Amino acid sequence: MNFPKIFLAGLAWGTAVALGAKVVTKPVAYEHAGVRLEGYLAYDDEKVSADKKAPGVLVVPEWWGLNDYAKHRAEQVAKLGYVAFAADMYGAGVVTTDAKKANELASQFYGKPLMAERAQAGLDQLLATGLVDAPRVAAIGYCFGGSAVQALAFTGAPLAGIVSFHGGLHAAPADAAAKNKAKILICHGAVDPFVSAEDLAAFKKSMDDGKFDYQFISYAGAVHAFTNPGADALGKLNNIPVAYNAAADKRSWAHMRAFFNEIFAVKK
Amino acid sequence: MNFPKIFLAGLAWGTAVALGAKVVTKPVAYEHAGVRLEGYLAYDDEKVSADKKAPGVLVVPEWWGLNDYAKHRAEQVAKLGYVAFAADMYGAGVVTTDAKKANELASQFYGKPLMAERAQAGLDQLLATGLVDAPRVAAIGYCFGGSAVQALAFTGAPLAGIVSFHGGLHAAPADAAAKNKAKILICHGAVDPFVSAEDLAAFKKSMDDGKFDYQFISYAGAVHAFTNPGADALGKLNNIPVAYNAAADKRSWAHMRAFFNEIFAVKK
């Protein structure tokens, strides 16, 4: 959905936009730590209502910000019958296609408490919709967002599961195992040059040592951003090694669905 | 199905045994390199016939031989609508629960052409049923059998895909990439002590260098034999680090099904 920015800014909870047969989408204004944010809610209003709650899925965007790609993912999640909320990490309307700018924006968060806190603000919005069956909530994230959902889970956020698609991978913090409630699915490009063998090994060691419930999947030939059909253009524009991989995209989506089937199957 | 051995020996193609609602099973006598073998065919005769062919799945057992566990897997595959054939690698009726004996039996095959050749003899039996839609054939294997299906694929056998469950992992032979036709799914116990970090790295490097179409999945907390509910008893009996892991078993089965959905979706 491409809304003119000025139109978007005026919308809030009140207005829903019909998308395809059943999915409605709404921009949602909220605030965190003094920053005005605007997320993107999507759900199927034939399947979901306050009287007919559904599992909820937080979607945390790539380092480009809450762009059409992230919104499209929220819509796809909504089509599965879940309530999807694409979080805004940077600020209302702050998106870029410039890797230098994206790196500056993302650097405010990496390795800092703000990363989980800002993601939590999005999670709060998802839960505040009144549409979500609260014990059945997951968070998925792409690239920077993959790191963010890991950070969110490691603070002990009430998540049944997280999925990281081509997210950064580092050893979990020492206190994460005791706090974490989420099952973890890592979807990783087998030849992603942004994740070193050392970081991978440290991540795995922290998962094993902390007895996390995780699944780690490597997809052949996939590099960073392998789920994003726009990755090749962004890679060319910025001269960075990112690329779409259709097979890995489809497979990781199928694996996410199987993961949701497991973690959402039983009401706790 | 537990047949008295003497009864089994007298059966061949002619006699089918009804299993549950729809799945029929048949012991199948065959021979390879002078060794008398007896495999185990399973399919749903309401869904599959010579006029209504289905995808075929070769099942290669653990190093214990073609025991009830492997037969049960063939039955489960048959229930999915596929023609399953559990191969006999050792010889008719040769099964053991003694790890020393199993190691002797398996050692005839590891690293030798016989491993792929004996698995190919099973594949030939599967294809000879006349029930299989030949371009849609896969091989799955457990433990020793996981290594065997890799070896079979690497000879260029006509397989759309292979699944290795807690199989041994070593670098693929130098000529494998040019010969291999199969997509590859590796289901691996994240803390399997039988696969060293060095072997894992060598396997992965050979997959990446050879541009194999593979997916590699690690399951948290899972060790060798994680799919076999009898593993704990066998581990205790033999003082070896094998154990069942129900979560990893269910997840890897779901991942196998998603893999089959992909590789069997389109008739070539």
Describe the protein in words.
Two copies of one chain form a homodimer. The longest helix of chain A is centred in the C-terminal third of the chain and has 18 residues, at 246-263. Helix content of chain A is 36%, strand content 24%. In chain A, 50% of the residues are buried. Chain A has helices at 5-10, 68-79, 99-107, 113-128, 144-154, 176-179, 197-209, 231-238, 246-263, and strands spanning 17-19, 23-32, 35-44, 54-60, 83-86, 132-142, 161-165, 183-189, 214-219. The termini of chain A are far apart. Chain A is of the alpha/beta class and 268 residues long. Chain A contains nine helices and nine strands. In chain A, strands 1-2-3-5-4-6-7-8-9 form a nine-stranded mixed beta sheet, sandwiched between helices. In chain A, helix 4 (113-128) crosses helix 5. Chain A binds chain B through residues 184, 190-191, 204, 207-208, 211-221, 247, 250-251, 254-255, 258, 261-262, and chain B through 184, 190-191, 204, 207-208, 211-221, 247, 250-251, 254-255, 258, 261-262. Strand 9 of chain A pairs antiparallel with strand 9 (214-219) of chain B.
